Amino acid sequence: MTTAPAKAGWRFRQPSVIPGFGLTLGFSLAYLTLIILIPLSGLVWRSASLGWSDFWAIATDRRTVKALEISFGTAFIAASINVVFGTIVAWVLVRYRFPGRRVIDAMVDLPFALPTAVAGIALTTLYSPKGWMGALLAPLGIKVAYTPLGIVIALVFIGLPFVVRTVQPIIEEIDKEVEEAAATLGANRFQTIFLVLFPGLAPAVVTGFALAFARGVGEYGSVIFIAGNLPYISEIAPLLIVIRLEEYDYAAATAIATIMLALSFAMLLVINLIQSWTRKRYG
């Protein structure tokens, strides 16, 4: 007679349409261990060798705190902007047909293909005080290059595709009949957007925000040119890590990296909890 554990084990190992579960699972775990877990464990272990007092001194250093505030603050602002405008771009590309739509759709992926250093140089040239946009904004008292505002613009540029490409497939699955039915039942445009369409888009929007935010926090190449890298003003945490490495202060560099890792993990955990909540609520 087959026991319950044996039955459970048989159900776990029963064949599926795609064979090779054990092999692929083992390969996946080994790959993640080599590529992600071991490097992160080494980072945490190197930081732990500092001792709590030294680690706390580095973590509470004014320059470190300011660099972390700039990195996470600008990444959050840029991701929030991309959520709004990225969703609008995705909606226009899906719902409307107009000349040049395919060109615009291809241009959305340009930040993926463009080297980040090239993007940073181009944005700096454009928004510097003598650039095309910078010269127009200077009389208004708006300075973009070498300020946190320039960092936000750079992060908006590199983060937009994450939101557009995450939301776009979900919009394609929404039938136009849903909007027409809402209008037939008396819903105005505001109600149609926020009560009918947004609940279905919410999980994808949160996912796009998470991807854009994660990319922005660790971005380096497109930011260092337009930021100006002024301590306490426009210096980002990844640049501060590089500076500490160039000073051969490996302890400080690993400590700052560990702090970034912990903060990023905490914020992404919160975002994932919000994703789970939106999926359960809106289906």
Features:
single chain; 283 residues; mainly alpha; MetI-like fold; 14 helices; Sulfate transport system permease protein CysT; transmembrane
Report the mean per-residue pLDDT as an integer: 86
Tally of extended strands? Answer: 0
What is the level-2 CATH architecture name? Orthogonal Bundle
Distance between the ends: 42 Å
N-to-C series of helices and strands: HHHHHHHHHHHHHH
Number of helices: 14
In the predicted model, the low-confidence regions spanning at least 5 consecutive residues are: none
Give the CATH topology.
MetI-like fold
What is the top-level CATH class? Mainly Alpha
Query: How many structural units, i.e. domains?
Result: 1
Q: Shape, please?
A: globular
* Radius of gyration, CA atoms, in whole angstroms: 24 Å
- Give the fraction of residues assigned to helices: over 70%
Major sheet = none
The CATH superfamily label reads MetI-like
Assembly type: single chain
Please state roughly what percent of the residues sit in beta strands, choosing from under 5%, 5-15%, 15-25%, 25-35%, 35-45% or over 45%: under 5%
Structural class: mainly alpha
Overview of the structural elements:
Belongs to the binding-protein-dependent transport system permease family. CysTW subfamily. Part of the ABC transporter complex CysAWTP (TC 3.A.1.6.1) involved in sulfate/thiosulfate import. Probably responsible for the translocation of the substrate across the membrane. Pfam families: BPD_transp_1 (PF00528). It comes from Aminobacter aminovorans (Chelatobacter heintzii). The chain is an all-alpha fold. The protein has one domain: MetI-like fold (Orthogonal Bundle), CATH 1.10.3720. It has 14 helices and no strands. The longest helix has about 35 residues. It is globular and about 65 Å long.
